[in-house]
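Technical annex B. To support the medicinal chemistry partners, we prepared a structural model of the target in complex with nicotinamide-adenine-dinucleotide, based solely on the information shown next.
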Amino acid sequence: MEKIRVGVFGVYRGLYLAREFVRLGAEIVALCDVNEPRIAAAKAELGEDIAVYKDFDEFLNHPMDAVILTNNFSQHAPYAVKCLEKNIHVLSECISNATMGEAVALVRAFEKSNAVYMMGENYPHSLTCTELRKIAKGGTLGKILFAEAEYNHPFSDYDPAAVKILMFHPKHWRNFLPKTYYLTHSLGPVMYMTGATPKKVTAFAMFDPPAKDAPTACYVGDKAANITTQNDDGSVFRMTAFSQFGGPNSSVRLCGTKGQVENIRGFQDRILLRYNPWDLPENTENNKIYTPEWDDKDAELIKTSEHGGGDFKTVRLFLECIKEKKQPPMPFDVYSATTMSSVAILGWRSVLEGGKPYDVPDFRKEEDRKKYENDRLTPFWGTDGSAPNIPCCSHPEYKPSEKQMELYFEELAK
Ligand SMILES: NC(=O)c1ccc[n+]([C@@H]2O[C@H](COP(=O)([O-])OP(=O)(O)OC[C@H]3O[C@@H](n4cnc5c(N)ncnc54)[C@H](O)[C@@H]3O)[C@@H](O)[C@H]2O)c1
């Protein structure tokens, strides 16, 4: 079979995924980014003769089979729609859509297209998430009633990398990212492990703004939000999304009627498995702490891949879907992706409305599409320069002080 030709839109995160495409035998044929140092770094690694574009429409005219959408977090859907209209396969970084209206446009474009659409959510594929899923599917925990998942990623108020790499201009999406939106690293794993889909969401935020002398342009003064969903099988998920508690971790706990399992916070590769004494499976030790091993034909490649092997497995699944002409399983398919985005977006509305519960739409249904097709509420700056039209902080009046902005620009200039 001919090599699959891939274009990369946004070459910072995109470079990480491009490496995996190359390792899996695909060819990176075009790059698109306006950031020249990043383009230079990507070409130095991937090949100096790769075609480079600054304009997405020109990039999309380059002959290719698939596009990696690793552009701004808040701007994936309009570009995904353009790819799908040309039957070009899409691997989209999270989240799939930043407004409810974009979700409707995305599923409509998907249904008219012959292309594969996949959410590039990689955390479900880490070593411990793979093990937790295996245990949940094995059935020894009984019915899973409750799961909690935290994506906790703190950084220092004074970290220069946060300014220069993560939020490198004042309107950068991370400066306007509400604390429910970066949800797929926690919701993706628990949906994949349990098979449950959220039906209702409610959330509360935790306000604690950065230090007064921090170099920051961030309009979000919250450190975290607690997001709760009631799911289609009666279970409940409790999650955080890019929270900033002390002590980084990415953790999941699954609680069933017979037992529970978790990856231990702070000991990322270790698992704690427990059962009721009367439900203990044969030949199993109770209260067991252990480190799982990869059971995968590509174990050696996975071990050298970023995000605990998640990047490799994400790209491998996407390439398999293209070769086998099939769509990915939940929660990586377009309907799960738009569900996850709905939990993120409506969870934020819940925060702004004192924890009011919201129904999570199912965009397979025309009635749910009609309800949201014109919903363009967003906390982010738009592709066309349009300003946010809802607050990104639980204290809507909060904004960085003049002093903080001054320090931010000083740090950027260094
Ligand atoms: N799954 C993961 O583990 C993981 C890790 C990091 C980032 N991400 C996701 O990847 C995406 C990108 O993250 P990032 O940290 O690289 O963001 P970033 O803001 O640093 O980079 C985005 C890049 O896209 C380019 N870009 C945006 N709009 C453009 C346009 N219209 N034309 C040309 N270039 C354009 C920018 O110049 C920039 O280089 C986000 O959705 C983020 O959530 C995922």
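Notes passed to the chemistry partners:
Residues 217 and 296 are 44 Å apart (CA to CA).
DSSP finds 13 helices and 15 strands in the chain.
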